[in-house]
Amino acid sequence: MRLKPYFLPALVALLLVVTSCTSLGQSANAQLSDAQFEAKVLEIIRKNPQVILDSVQAYQRSQAQKEEQARDKVLAQIRQEPRLLLRNAPVTGSTSQKIILAEFSDFECPYCAKAHEVVKEFMAKNGNDVTLVYKHFPLKEIHAQAEPAALASWAAFQQGKFWEYHNALFEQQSKLGEAFYVELAQNLKLDIDKFNRDRKSNEAKEAIKKDFELGKSLGVRGTPSFLVNGTFFSGVPDLKSLEELIAQIKAGK
Question: How far is residue 138's CA from residue 146's CA, in Å, rounded to a whole number?
Answer without folding.
Answer: 5
